[in-house]
Every structure is written in structure tokens, then in C-alpha cells.
Amino acid sequence: MTAKGKISEKIIGNVLLVGICISLAFIAAGVLALIFGNGNAHTDTDTIIAISALPRELIKLNPTALFTGGILMMILTPALRVLGALVIFTINKEYKYTIISFTVFALLVLSFIIGKS
Hints:
Blueprint lengths: L2 H34 L17 H6 L3 H29 L3 H22 L1
Helix pairs in contact: 1-3, 3-4
């Protein structure tokens, strides 16, 4: 493996690591908010938080919003990894892998759009 390949692999690995750490931090914060209960926080974990309301509810430290944010980050992490690979392959002029990464990323975005409707 070339030096560029090792650096690229490290960057992509770090994207996965950071994504999982952020996800776990949100979920842990949700558990703490649920246990210690902020007086202003809504603690009904059966409620579904809309993506559009997520930032507002996260500021309120709503446990359900924190759980939702953690799960959303966990879902988005592999997509961000594919996007990172796409950028790296494009920079390294590895066009075969750029096309493959673009196709995979486009399919992920399409599946998110179809799944939302």
C-alpha cells in the first residue's frame, strides 16, 4: 500500500471513530438526562422527535432528542465514510473508485429520500 493509501485509510477510519464517539456521547447524555431529569425536559421516551424539531429539543436536553440524535449520527456515520472516500479518491485521481463511491453515496441518499416518504 502506498503512503497516500495509508493516509486515506487513516482519515476514513477516523471519520468512523469520531462518528461513533459522537453518537455514543449523545446517547450517554440522553441516559443522564433521563436519570437526572432536567425539570424543563420532556421525558416521554415514546414520543417521536421530528428532524426539524431536533435542534430545538437538543438545546432543551430532551432525553428523547438526545437518543434520536445519537441514533441519527450512528446511521449517518457510514454515509459520511462513503462521502469521505469519494473525496479522497477524487483528490487522488482514482477515478474508478471515485465512480464506485459516487454510486454508493447516491444510492444511500436515494434510500434516505425514499425511506423518508
